[in-house]
Amino acid sequence: MPEMTKKLDRFTAAILAEATAETERTLDALKKKRAAALDQAEDRILLEAFHYIKSEVAAIKAEAGRSVSRHMLDNKRALYLRREEISQEVFRLVRDRLAGYTASPAYAERLAGLCRQALDTLKGADDVRIYLRPADLSLAGELRRAVPGLDAAFEAGDFSLGGLVAESAALGLRVDATFDNAMEELSGHFAELFGLSLSDDE
Description:
The protein has 4 helices and 4 strands. By secondary structure, it is of the alpha+beta class. A hairpin with a 4-residue loop joins strand 3 (163-168) and strand 4.
């Protein structure tokens, strides 16, 4: 019987050893499967996180771009409004100065100079008409005395700042030497003259 017990113990030990080895193999296989599943899950999560971050970065960039564009547009609008304010203030000051100038004795001399220049341009015309602003028609006599040989009809013009217009229908020529015309030309160039452009280069 002791022999039988020994055989039985050996048999039991062999079975237990085989069972233990099988258990270890199964556990190793499960560990490998689990590790592979974890690796796949990590890869999937990392890929999803990458796509999420990429889309969020794109959204943030787009919003930042829109914000910058809005800010630039607001600044351009503010610059445009400020330029208009400056322009109006400058031209108001110019008109005030012109009003003071046209009330001075120097203005009559300036009109005489403009009249001479206009007559040089209309040389040979015998149908010259000179237009003055209504407030300057009283200076027609002074102009006749200041410009020898002046043979022209004087009429009220439709301008208000000063200067004169001379024309000859026979020659088909018109000389606009009004302060109004000079002011209009200046207003067209005001922004570039004073560096207040709204171009994208600035």
